[in-house]
Amino acid sequence: MDKKHLDVATKRYAGILLHPTSFPNPYGIGDLGKGAFDFIDFMEKAGMTAWQVLPLGHTGFGDSPYQPFSSFAGQPLIISIDHLIELDLLDEDDLKDMPQWNPEDISYGDVIAFKTELYRTAYERFIDKEFTDKLSTDEELMADYNKFINESDWLKDYALFMAGKDYHKGAPWYMWDESLKNPKDSERAEWEEKLSKEIGYYEFLQYLFYTEWTKLKEYANQKGISIIGDIPIFVAWDSVDVWRNQKLFMLDSKGYPTDVAGVPPDYFSATGQLWGNPLYNWEEHKKTGYEWWIKRIRHQLELTDFLRIDHFRGFDKFWAVPYGDESAVKGRWIEAPGENFFTMLEANLGYHMPIIAEDLGEIDESVIDLRDKFGFPGMKILQFAFENPNENHFLPHNHIRNCVCYTGTHDNDTTLGWYKHAYEASKDKLRRYYSTDASDICWVMIRACFGSVANMAIIPMQDVLELDSWARFNTPGVGSGNWSWRYKKEALTDQLASRLFETAKMYGR
């Protein structure tokens, strides 16, 4: 879809929040194959016009989409096995020892081992000329592959980074051999020759991801469905972004951060939150005209139609905690170049930026001013509307058109789980506010969300399916068991699509 013509001002979007890992299939984790296309068909039947995903990057330790190895590379785990079978790079015999997976949960360690073995088998066949010469699609496949390699200017750095990690047995880049940690051109050339096969493997995976994602996005857009992407403001320390752009981050001469990201102590945490990401050296970014950031945002907006930016307040001021501190208490606020940055970004993109600002948490007037100056919609979470006994801006009657209303996000409990565990005062306020006995709490909240004046209304799939806390996608601060929920194929019924359609239609969406 043309970003210049996305009519955010007048169209009332209704959508679903669902990460691709949650799609049903027989392979242990959702992917970009049939389950994804079935979901788009369901969305069309249900009258939905927006699909929101979490960051689509190559995840590292902990499997969090918000800590990828690269701001540009896609997630290999959601490459479709069926697509590789269609390309004749895998066959049914390769799947004979496939485990029996839990259809409602992802066992990441097992899935990574299983899919990596299949990917490597497919790659060995792909580079075997004798094998590929037999394929009817050989010439077209190779031409398409070479075009992708030549047009992806980020790919060589990423593939070398991943190959370097494999060579160093998974160690982070700042613990690598000195000649690869910060290589001169001649040293880099030596490593590229030494690791050429492994580099080719990672290039192959990215070709598959981008081929599949492009096809899926085109299908969704043809059905009238816009895709809302997501990126974290900060990047992982152990990422190709930091490795290849060390001057753009607050690092010492050994590649270690001088300060790291977090948020200060607040009502929810006496010690704040310590995230540990390296912080941006904004002065260096400014000297380059924000070149890296502009490439990053432009790239993401080629993948999606809208883009949510996590921790938007970090563009106004960010909390810097000395590296090595065990809590965020001793941090300090540092100014970020928000207005200058977004002015430059918009000038370079050449159109109004379809950005959604994640403006949750402790937000002050300067953050609101920055958001509103550029017309970015903020977020309204209905679960938060009833946790404060006083009036608050999350209540539907306080919404404005230029915002996105959610029942909850990936960081919230499911609506059913939240309501069960809410304080009685919050439940009472909700029941009186909506004049309900809350026996149908998920749909009470869905109707409230769709009925909001907000231009966009997004419902997590778990709430559409009325699921309890077991289906929660992420619990912030808990290191394991996250990002693993999936739904069964039979959950998406025609009756459910009809109910969503009628509800959206009732409220002009």
From TrEMBL:
InterPro entries documented for this protein: GH, Glyco_hydro_77
E.C. code: 2.4.1.25
Keywords, sorted A to Z: Carbohydrate metabolism, Glycosyltransferase, Transferase
Protein name: 4-alpha-glucanotransferase
Reaction it catalyzes: Transfers a segment of a (1->4)-alpha-D-glucan to a new position in an acceptor, which may be glucose or a (1->4)-alpha-D-glucan
Protein's UniProt keywords contain Glycosyltransferase: yes
GO molecular function ontology, one term from the record: 4-alpha-glucanotransferase activity
Protein's GO biological process: carbohydrate metabolic process
Superkingdom of origin: Bacteria
Transmembrane portions of the chain: none
SUPFAM superfamilies in the record: (Trans)glycosidases
Enzyme class: transferase
Family of the protein in this entry: Belongs to the disproportionating enzyme family.
Alphabetized Pfam families for the sequence: Glyco_hydro_77
Keyword field contains Transferase: yes
